[in-house]
Amino acid sequence: MTSTAVHEKPEAVPPPPPAEITYTGRYSVNPLAEVSFRRMCAQIPAVLGRIGRLAWRTDRRAVQILLGCQVVTGVAAAVLLTATARAMGPLLGAGPVAERLHGALPALLVMALAAALGRGAGAVATYAERRITPRLVTETDSALVEAVCRVEAAAYAEDGFVDRQEAAEMGVIRAQFMVADAQRFSSALIRMVTAAGVLSVLNVLMLPLLLLAVLPAGAGAVLTARVDYEIHYANIADRNVRGMMRWWATTSKYADEVRANSMTDYLVFWYRSLSDRCDRRTLAGTPRTLRIALLSSLAGGVFLVAAWGALGWLAVTGRVDLAVAATAVIAVQTTLAALSGVVVSGAAVFHTSLYLSDMQAFLDDAVARAPRRGRAALTGPAEEIRVEEVVYRYPGRSRPAVDGVSLTLRRGQILAIVGANGSGKSTLTRLLTGVYLPDRGRVTWNGTDLADIDPGTVWARTGLVPQIFAQWPLRVRENVTLGQPRTHDDGPVWEAVDVAGLREAVEELPAGLDTLLARDVFGGSEFSGGQWQRVACARALYRRSELLILDEPTSQMDPRGEHRIFERIKAVAADRVTIVVTHRLENTRLADHVVVMEHGRVTEQGHYDDLVRADGTFAELLALSQDR
Ligand SMILES: Nc1ncnc2c1ncn2[C@@H]1O[C@H](COP(=O)(O)OP(=O)(O)OP(=O)(O)O)[C@@H](O)[C@H]1O
């Protein structure tokens, strides 16, 4: 290749659009697709019940206030209408205005009082709803976060799990409106029943006509909600990926990579393409929603004209007198407003119910996926960890990541695991800690199968520096102590910081151990890659665990830092089982035993010197690492 060829820019090729995500299997079917309109409406009482129970658990007092207000609203509405009917007689009668007004005064006063009571009850109901909603949202949101944190780690690899989580998030968002919707629905229902009661006393014919006038709007709202949900369902996977991509593209953590590799244009194109795809699905639904709106308005309008026509006919033909007809006008207006409230809020409750169902289904699913293991507890320190013919295959992968591995680890031993990328080293560490359970074979701690042990008791004895570790946006202190109760003084924290060679860096921070490690936050600070890795090592060493696993713990560290960490590993090795996964084969000198993995199997094992002499894969990899 000539030097000019190296600098030649490749011909501009339009970038490929984001991959289309299509599902098969149980998550590919919209759960509403087969549900009839009647069944959808029949769900509403159950949804109201569920919202009620959630609210009751959150704030009983507020629910009681809310219910009290609903009753007052209903009574006030009935009194208002009855008093209106009473006032109409004198007002529309004969005589001077002052006399007519005087005659109607008691009824007018009652009307004013009832109206004030209704308004007051509405205000207090809003107050109660505002007391319930924030805590209800927090409750549902926290329940979701906890449920995800507690599932078997293997669930993440299963098809659709993360998308179901995205769908459940919508439930949390809708939780903000559900109490208000439910409250509006029930108060409209109460107002409607009372107004309709008064109206049917005036004339029985009016009620069915009014109902027919409003029902099409209700049907339209429910059908529109169904279309919205269908679109939402079709967009879940794309929205999920888009959400992830949004974070990756905009977080300051990857700002350098995005800019210096000129990724911005493609990322923006990609984000837009995905958004356009979601919009296309949404827009494809609009003709349907327009049809629904037009047809329901038409049907409703016809019945409304019939209702007003009927009232006019009753009045003109003298079947009802003028005072009653005037009250009927008000009752019709009230009933109509209340009926519209019922259908609109009912549809909103139904709409919410769809997302709540997704949330509930996900929470149930998460509970089903919580680790189901025995209740056995470990006694005494972990003396021996055995891996017996263990096989593990990730969902959707054709070959096992770990394929028939057997090992025995004893307290005081250091084991090094080496091997090519993808040979199963990290997966083996997940099996050793019980984060994953094997498909075949078993892992035992002191002779007890990890499948029979409460995982919490195992993880309380484990310290892990994973290959890709979290850089928690917490203070330095919490970054070290996270997952472990902290002593009252900072002594042990500084000890761990010292061991990781971080003291100088921490002391330079504006608030020392109290500095927030999040550069995006006001007052926050940031560490370098190697310093972050030292934090991860400090965290694991602070735990003083019985099993210490370090997966490429020093890949970003300078030689001084690396030396320090390995010195410390040796110094504390006597009290624990230590496992080091590394590509720097020189580092395996400190190990008592080295295993070499290839395609999920252990192909070589022994002491460093034996493996160097054996002239196998280890010796070959070592020679390559030294061939510079
Ligand atoms: N969450 C996952 N879902 C599906 N497949 C996975 C997952 N994690 C790992 N794999 C696959 O399992 C195999 C073993 O991966 P593993 O991470 O254990 O390898 P490794 O030896 O630690 O590799 P490396 O040296 O690159 O860290 C690989 O083929 C990888 O693609």
Automatic annotation (TrEMBL):
CDD domains, per database record: ABCC_MRP_Like
Molecular function per GO: ABC-type oligopeptide transporter activity; ATP binding; ATP hydrolysis activity
Signal peptide (residue range): none
SMART domains to which the protein is assigned, alphabetical: AAA
Transmembrane intervals: 63-85, 105-128, 193-215, 292-316, 323-350
Keywords: ATP-binding, Membrane, Nucleotide-binding, Transmembrane, Transmembrane helix
InterPro entries per UniProt: AAA+_ATPase, ABC1_TM_sf, ABC_transporter-like_ATP-bd, P-loop_NTPase, Type_1_exporter
PROSITE patterns reported in the protein's UniProt record: ABC_TRANSPORTER_2
Annotated ABC transporter domain residues: 385-624
Protein name: ATP-binding cassette domain-containing protein
